Amino acid sequence: MITFVPHSIFVSGATGFIATHTIAQLLAAGHRVRGSVRSTRNAEVLAPLRVLPGADDRLDLVEADLLAPDAFAGHLEGCDVVLHMASPYALDVKDPQRDLVDPAVTGTTSLLTACLNTPGIRRVVLTSSMAAVTDEPDGRMLTEADWNTHSALTRNPYYLSKVRAERAAWAFIDTHRPSWDLIAINPFLVIGPSLTRALNTSNKVVADLLNGAYPAILALTWGVVDVRDVADAHVRAMDAPGAAGRYLCLAGTMTAREMVALLRSRGYDGYRLPRLGLDGPVGTALVRLAAYAQAPGIRQYLRTNLGRSLKADNTKIRRDLDIAFRPIEQTVLDAAADLVTWGHVRRNG
Ligand code: NDP
User: Fold this and answer.
1) Which residues are 278's β-sheet partners?
2) Among the options 94, 162, 311, 316, which is catalytic?
3) Cα 70 from Cα 206, distance rounded (Å)
4) Which letter, b or e, does each residue of 279-303 get, where b requires 16 or more Cβ atoms within 10 Å of its Cβ?
5) Best mutation site among 72, 89, 127, 148 for ligand 1, i.e. most ligand atoms within 8 A of its Cβ?
6) Is 311 labeled as catalytic in the residue annotation?
7) Which residues neighbour 57 within 8 Å (Cβ) at sequence distance 6 or greater?
8) Radius of gyration of the chain, Cα coordinates, nearest whole angstrom
9) What pTM does this model have?
10) CATH class of the 8-200+223-250+311-326 domain in this structure
């Protein structure tokens, strides 16, 4: 008989899109959770967490800003597992160093330092990203051995923040040789139903398609994974005995053309889905030029991703974490339905 051992789990960035699902799953499984948020005073922002079944007696919230000195000191007492999910997720910011890289790296280092100073920690699971794997897919099959070596403050700075944060985490392990181990989960584009009103940067891709923000079908390919499966991967990673190192986390890939066709055929024809195809060689050359008129983050993303084939191997995560991903078509349709429910997308006319 397998006996259930409840954990006390610290989750940073508890209000986030992925974190709220993860906390919901942890509470449902009977675990105790301490989540960090920037402020415990905004009742509206915290409401989706407070109403989760089990939250009344097994969820407590503490304050931590990633940039504050010793942000996590004293917060981990009594916890045996730490899930580090907080990190700014935006493509366009005013000051990429201050707004993206500093919080990502400083927050990771200060949380790992707090783990070092807290007896009883057994495992840390870091939410890294495909952004730490590549920012310019080149058609090769990506694996856990790949690292993004191209991003800079002037080129996909969000990607830079994620690669620097994950590098800092592994360097920390090399330097300090802690008694606990580190696992990194590297999700691709995470979409699906949201437990909060906020429109996450990744669900915004689907919202933008439905709201007419894309003037045409572009030559883009996304690695797609359901937010509920990303949460599940983190929960499984806490205990999986043979788990080690990094895990590419995606169910499969989908082109913009495939996503538009799926949505059009499944009830979303009345939204502003793009019709014009600019995903051939000529269209792609035109869009590359037109990208110069976009905000820097979008421009850099388009110029490094347009027309590029993305392939990534999810064998390791399926094997070690015994995870069965939802089909990406279901994920896209569930994301779209949820965007309608929250009022993030509107029918044409
Ligand atoms: P969200 O933006 O929903 O969540 C990010 C969380 O980080 C929020 O709780 C946010 O708090 C918190 N945060 C940001 N900056 C700070 C700060 N300075 N101090 C304290 N907390 C901060 O994004 P996701 O849920 O999508 O992202 C969660 C993690 O997953 C991130 O590490 C992200 O990089 C990673 N990821 C996401 C992917 C995706 O497609 N969504 C893909 C791959 C990785 P607040 O609400 O107060 O802003």
Assistant:
1) 218
2) 162
3) 37
4) beeebbeebeeebeeeeebebbbbb
5) 89
6) no
7) none
8) 20
9) 0.97
10) alpha beta
What residues does ligand 1 touch, defined as CB less than 6 Å away? 13, 15-19, 38, 65-67, 85-89, 103, 127, 129, 162, 187, 189-190, 200, 202
Domain ranges of the chain: 8-200+223-250+311-326
Ligand 1 centroid, distance to 85 Cα (angstroms): 6
* Tens of each residue's pLDDT in the chain, 349 residues: 556 778 999 999 999 999 999 999 999 999 999 999 999 999 999 999 999 999 999 999 999 999 998 999 999 999 999 999 999 999 889 999 999 999 999 999 999 999 999 999 999 999 999 999 999 999 999 999 999 999 999 999 999 999 999 999 999 999 999 999 999 999 999 999 999 999 999 999 999 999 999 989 999 999 999 999 999 999 999 999 999 999 999 999 999 999 999 999 999 999 999 999 999 999 999 999 988 888 898 899 999 999 999 999 999 999 999 999 999 999 999 999 999 999 999 998 7
Name beta bridge partners: 81.
9, 123
- The closest alpha carbon to 308, from 251, 249, 255, belongs to 255
Type of residue found at 32: R
> Ligand 1 centre from 65 Cα, in Å?
12
Residue that has been written with the tokens 């894309």 in this structure: 214
Cα–Cα distance between 44 and 54 in angstroms, integer?
A: 19
Residue 187's H or E segment, with its range, is strand 181-187
Residue to mutate (ligand 1; options 11, 18, 202; most atoms within 8 A of CB): 18
